[in-house]
Design a protein that fits this description.
With 157 residues, the protein is of the alpha/beta class. 23% of the residues lie in helices and 47% in strands. The chain contains 1 helix and 9 strands; from the N terminus they run αβββββββββ.
Length: 157
Amino acid sequence: MRNIIPKLRYLLFFLLLVFAVACSLIKNQNTAENSEQENTKIMEVKDLIIDQQFRLSYDEIDYNIKNARIDAEILTVSVAYKGGCGQHNFDIVFNGMYAKSLPVKAALYLKHEAINETCQRDTIEEIKFDISQMQYPRDTIMFVNIFSYSPQLKYIY
């Protein structure tokens, strides 16, 4: 019996050590996931704005489009910018003009508004837009150019 008690103590100590290490690993994993979620925001689908008078210059661009894709009628744009404390509004604007080509081409402009922003943290935001309003009536394929981003995107509708 005396030989069993020290062995049980070692076994208990070993089990507690394994439990502590496992808890620490889970906590570190959750912290990393939360940190990633804080820097990447996912928003709901926003509507396309049609404004024939809209113009945007390169001087007004305070963001970097990392990636863009079109799935069905949804344009998804991944945008990087400095901020994190204030409110950031992104809109996609179409000026209603089509380039005469086969297939037809159209340009979109990503408009950014920062409100009460005082931070400089690197932030990535994924924004979704419904672009179905820009469909060219006599075609089912269009090439879409986003101002300050390349490559062109193929929009099949």
